[in-house]
Amino acid sequence: MTTTARERVAAFWDTHVAAWLDGADPLPHPLPAWFDSYLGIGLGQVTRDGFPEPFQGDLSGLTHTPRMVVLGLNPGEYRPRFQSRDGIFAAEIRAAGSYSRWMTTGPYNRPPWTDTMGPNRYYQTRLRFTRNWLQDPDAGHGDLLIFECYPWHSKSITAPLRPPPEIIEQFVWQPIAELPVRDVFAFGKPWNDVAAALGLPPTGALGAGGTPYGSTVPSRAVRTYGLPSRQRLVVEWHSGSAGPPSAKETALLRNALSSAECERPGLLNAPAPRAATAAAHASIGFLP
Questions:
Q1: Nearest of 148, 226, 221 to residue 182 by alpha carbon
Q2: What pLDDT, on a 0 to 100 scale, did the predictor assign at position 3?
Q3: Which residues pair with 69 in a beta bridge?
Q4: Minimal CA–CA distance to 82: which of 58, 102, 104?
Q5: Any idea what the Cα angle at residue 203 is, between residues 202 and 205, rounded to 5°?
Q6: Quick check: 259 and 219 in contact, CB under 8 A?
Q7: Are 49 and 84 in contact, with CB atoms under 8 Å apart?
Q8: pLDDT exceeding 90 applies to what percent of the chain?
Q9: Inter-residue contact 243 to 186 (CB < 8 Å)
Q10: 42-79 residue pLDDT tens
């Protein structure tokens, strides 16, 4: 019996991906509203030829409790050799027994992906940021949990992402609330628009367009938002890249975020993991 938001979300996606691997293409409630919340065209057109990838990492804490949470936009380009029903990853998921258990293995940071596609720069930069932020050079894929704003594949993003806030609350914010993290990170300006669309309250502005904090990159902007759990969403972007900051810039950001100047007094306190409650998980009713 599942008892936490993390377990509920993992079980939902395990069931969904298993049905997809068996040849179905289900969109149970509330997935139709989520699927329809992005209307990409051209290179941004969405495909369901590959399995959805709503998260990367050990969501349920099967082998390790994540210490870093990063938000992505979507899983990126569909690669049939790996992500189709008869692809390499489909066979691995079947062998692992579930999508969530397979995701504990860091599939995009090991062979056969790296043998065929080379190092995954997106994942590597976020793992490097994890090590820099935690000040732990030994942090590994078990420490990093990535949630996608939109779990289906497209080669690029060519339209606004407008996920229903109540879906993000149950599928993203509630699981994150159970983790021992204060800050949740998103890199790239599009996430600033997503945060606004979700109605998150702004709590601070650093760098470009805000309070200077010592960054040597003139275009670097940092915006912070309050999450329902009283954790903090940190959105960072700068010209020419949607990736995380360097080690030196990460240290500057850590120091700035530790000061009271980048948040409204009393809004955020370092949180303990939010306990699972029946009321919290039944408040919207998407998950069993």
A1: 226
A2: 84
A3: 145, 184
A4: 102
A5: 90
A6: no
A7: yes
A8: 87
A9: no
A10: 999 999 999 999 999 999 999 999 999 999 999 999 99
